[in-house]
């Protein structure tokens, strides 16, 4: 929906993705409001007993939640807890549903379709375009993300604290509005400044440790962006629209591959929506090679 340059082109996948992102951003707010909470952690109820958020069908956050009585844990957050505590709790079994889901689909689909930071930064892209601010396309290589993820785990083990969870911008706006918490909010502010004046998508493309974790497991996903070489005219509009790294489309556009094999692809669908010849589509493609 938002592009850094020129007019925005709205495609079916982009619209669907934004709807999912908004729904996911609101999902964990609803239980709190249903329990009588207002903004900044205040309570609007009277003296009568009401349900606490944990007693409702859905509650929690993107790091730890419960849906219809089923506990779900973010795999990367769980890894930080494991290395920080130097022990594996039985609750870590609740990592498996989320991990299996993203392994089967494609790891970074979380980044493309769920993470609220991605949606927020698309708005930043639009603002930067309106202001005419020029920034570097890839100031930091994307392979840095997995390195940052590994460094987070090492530091978590050293200091016995899940480091990234202390500064994570994921859910920062929700926490600020609902609880008045600044946890992760300053990280989000710093990201916005960097995005506006230094590099296009530098956080999501190159620095986010959560994205680095999902990039690492993303190479085995069953869904990929597939290309019809007979329809492709090599206009490179797909590369200009890519939210990850335009280079992940190089092999496909050059006719050397029938799909985007990189684990960094988050199936956002922007390349599909921007293709004038409908040469790209998201579909099942069993991995033949593994690539970050």
Shape: globular
Number of helices: 15
Sheet of most strands: 3 strands, antiparallel
- Work out the strand percent: 5-15%
What is the count of structural domains? 2
| Helix/strand class | mainly alpha
Helix content estimate? 40-55%
- Uncertain residue ranges: 1-8
Strands side by side in the biggest sheet: 1-2-3
Number of strands: 5
Radius of gyration: 20 Å
Q: Averaged pLDDT, please?
A: 85
H/E series, N to C? Answer: HHEEEHHHHHHHHHHEHHHE
Q: How far apart, in Å, are the first and last alpha carbons? A: 27 Å
Describe the structure.
With 292 residues, the chain is mostly helical. Helices cover 46% and strands 7% of the residues. Strands 1-2-3 form a three-stranded antiparallel beta sheet. Strand 2 (64-67) and strand 3 form a beta hairpin. Helix 7 (144-159) packs across helix 12. It is globular and about 60 Å long.
Q: In a nutshell, what does this entry contain?
A:
GO terms for molecular function: 4 iron, 4 sulfur cluster binding; metal ion binding. Residues 223-252, 256-285 form the 4Fe-4S ferredoxin-type domain. The protein is built from 15 helices and 5 strands.
List the helices and strands and how they pair.
Blueprint lengths: L11 H16 L2 H5 L23 E3 L3 E4 L2 E4 L1 H11 L10 H10 L3 H5 L2 H16 L12 H16 L3 H5 L4 H8 L5 H13 L4 H6 L1 H10 L4 E5 L9 H5 L8 H4 L16 H5 L5 E5 L8
Antiparallel strand pairs: 1-2, 2-3, 4-5
Helix pairs in contact: 3-7, 6-10, 7-12
Keywords: 4Fe-4S, Electron transport, Iron, Iron-sulfur, Membrane, Metal-binding, Transmembrane, Transmembrane helix, Transport
Organism: Slackia heliotrinireducens (strain ATCC 29202 / DSM 20476 / NCTC 11029 / RHS 1) (Peptococcus heliotrinreducens)
Pfam families: Fer4_10, Fer4_5
């Amino acid at each position: 929906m938002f592009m850094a340059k020129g007019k925005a082109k709205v495609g079916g996948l982009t619209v669907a993705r934004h709807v999912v992102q908004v729904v996911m951003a609101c999902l964990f707010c609803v239980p709190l409001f249903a329990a009588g909470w207002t903004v900044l952690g205040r309570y609007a109820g009277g003296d009568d007993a009401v349900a606490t958020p944990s007693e409702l069908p859905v509650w929690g956050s993107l790091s730890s939640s419960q849906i219809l009585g089923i506990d779900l844990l973010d795999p990367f957050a769980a890894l930080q807890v494991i290395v920080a505590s130097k022990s594996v709790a039985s609750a870590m079994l609740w990592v498996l549903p989320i991990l299996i889901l993203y392994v089967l689909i494609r790891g970074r689909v979380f980044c493309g379709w769920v993470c609220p930071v991605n949606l927020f930064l698309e708005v930043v892209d639009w603002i930067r375009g309106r202001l005419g601010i020029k920034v570097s396309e890839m100031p930091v290589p994307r392979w840095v993300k997995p390195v940052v993820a590994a460094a987070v785990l090492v530091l978590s083990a050293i200091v016995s604290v899940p480091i990234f969870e202390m500064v994570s911008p994921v859910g920062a706006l929700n926490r600020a509005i609902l609880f008045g918490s600044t946890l992760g909010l300053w990280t989000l502010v710093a990201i916005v400044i960097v995005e506006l004046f230094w590099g296009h998508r530098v956080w999501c493309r190159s620095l986010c440790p959560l994205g680095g974790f999902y990039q690492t497991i993303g190479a085995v996903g069953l869904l990929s962006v597939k290309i019809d070489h007979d329809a492709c005219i090599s206009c490179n509009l797909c590369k200009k629209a890519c939210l990850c790294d335009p280079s992940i489309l190089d092999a496909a556009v050059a006719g050397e591959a029938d799909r985007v094999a990189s684990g960094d692809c988050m199936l956002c669908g922007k390349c599909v929506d921007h293709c004038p010849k409908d040469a790209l589509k998201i579909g099942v493609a069993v991995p033949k090679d593994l690539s970050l």
